[in-house]
Amino acid sequence: MRRLHVLAFTSLFRTPSEKVRAPFTSEFLRALKEFADVTLVCPIPWAPDIAFTRDRPDWARFVTAPRCAEVDGVQVHYTRYPMIPKLSGVLQPTLQAWAAWSTVRAIHEKQPVDVVNGRFVYPDGVAAARLARRLGVPYVLTALGTDINIYATQRLKRGQAARALQQAAHVTAVSPALADRIAELGVDRSRIAAAVNGIDLDRFRPDGDRVVLPPGAPGEGRKTLLTVARLSQEKGLHVLVDALGLLARQGRCDFHTVLVGDGPERDALQARLHELGLQDRVTLAGEVDHAAVPAWLRGAAGFCLPSFREGTPNVVIEALATGIPVTSTNVGGTPLLLNDSNGLLVEPGQAEPLAQALHTMMSRAWDRDTIRRSVAHMSWRSEAERHAQLFERIACGAVA
User: Fold this and answer.
1) What are the boundaries of each domain within the chain?
2) For 54-110, how does the pLDDT look when each residue is reduced to its tens digit (9 = 90+)?
3) pTM of the entire predicted model
4) 22, 153, 273, 391: which could join 12 in a potential S-S bond, CB 3.0 to 4.6 Å?
5) Exposure string (b/e) for 5-30, b if CB count within 10 Å is 16 or more?
6) Fold assignment, 5-198+379-395
7) 8 Å CB contact between 74 and 30
8) What is the DSSP string of 166-208?
9) Are 75 and 41 spatial neighbours (Cβ–Cβ below 8 Å)?
10) Torsion angle in degrees (nearest 10) through CA of 111, 117, 121, 126
11) 5-198+379-395 and 223-373 have identical folds
12) 223-373 adopts what CATH topology?
């Protein structure tokens, strides 16, 4: 019997020059390969190969990306589409589909595609829907958070997203809250499945190498509070900095905080740290390879993700699997992950409650085995197997 061939289509995947980008995509697709043949098409903006773009990291990653490569164990084809920042957002699905068509057709001619999986509903999923219709195969859309919570609420994008969702053979979402929003867009409940992401329990475990602050570094010898996130507005890191400032003024900040990640808010966060006198209490560690994240987590006494919005954040699952408690916000699928035995929840955007929760978390004795058991039932393999069974039923024409 011929193996199922799944064509995944998403921009949420790193180029070879990037240390990390949406690692949950590669984790899922790598696990899916056990049950099906998987080919990934990753649309990226076209950028001219000139000194200006090569000197800008946010554009250089697109300039240097090859047409085809194996990255993180996944065969990926990078297709370049024209994009004018801030102007072509409404046209982006059309441009992505147009630019990817010749590549997708060649993949299909070499090995017939059975199901297309568009991961991130807008713009990628809308483009994937158009490609699937041209191929004459069914498609499944996977909602991850911002695609539904933000883009699908915008007037000129909502209709495109809704039509693609309504015509999909099935829709998967990474939290029940997202599933509810998808239903509000006119999708029949029987064609929506909600499930949280998985975790590599072999990599994310309490024992193993750990990153600790080196001798002489600010905070050396103190407990570490860790955050791993893109330094962007929606992650709420400015609220975390303000909460740390409150604790410092109260004489209750007896730990050192490390922010792992990079992004557009780095300079603003650095300025706020200096304004509050926290430069010796907080380290901006920059971006690290995803392979290094388990060691950073093992070296921490607690983890914080103060986001304003999320799907179901993988980094929280990773922290819990490593056995460290988490303070996070009551958004998306996060409340499904946390309880009194593994962490604390606060409302987003409020520095005082966050400060109190952080003090409580960092002062309390936690049972690492109990924390790990709270997510021990999750795995990328089981999530991939569920999706493979769904894709198989859809490819066979069965009711999903």
Assistant:
1) 5-198+379-395, 223-373
2) 777 777 788 888 999 999 999 999 999 998 777 778 999 999 999 999 999 999 999
3) 0.83
4) 22
5) bbbbbbbbbbbeebebbbbbbbbbbb
6) Rossmann fold (3.40.50)
7) yes
8) HHSSEEEESSHHHHHHHHHTT--GGGEEE------TTTS-SSS
9) no
10) 40
11) yes
12) Rossmann fold (3.40.50)
Residue 194 and residue 173 in contact, taking contact as beta carbons nearer than 8 Å: yes
Q: Which residue has the tokens 């984790």?
A: 27
Please check whether residue 227 is in contact with residue 260, taking contact to mean a CB–CB distance below 8 angstroms.
Answer: yes
Q: Prior bond to 123 cis, omega within 30?
A: yes
Q: What is the pLDDT of residues 306-332, one digit of tens each?
A: 999 988 899 999 999 999 999 999 998
Residue 185 CA, chain-centre distance (Å), reads 23
Residues 7 and 115 sit within 8 Å (Cβ to Cβ): yes
Helix (H, G, I), strand (E, B) or coil at 69: strand
Tell me the pLDDT tens digit for each residue of 73-88: 999 999 999 987 777 7
Both tokens assigned to 228? 């791993």
Instruction: Quote the tokens at residue 224.
Output: 């570490």
Pairwise CA distance, residues 400 & 396, whole Å: 10
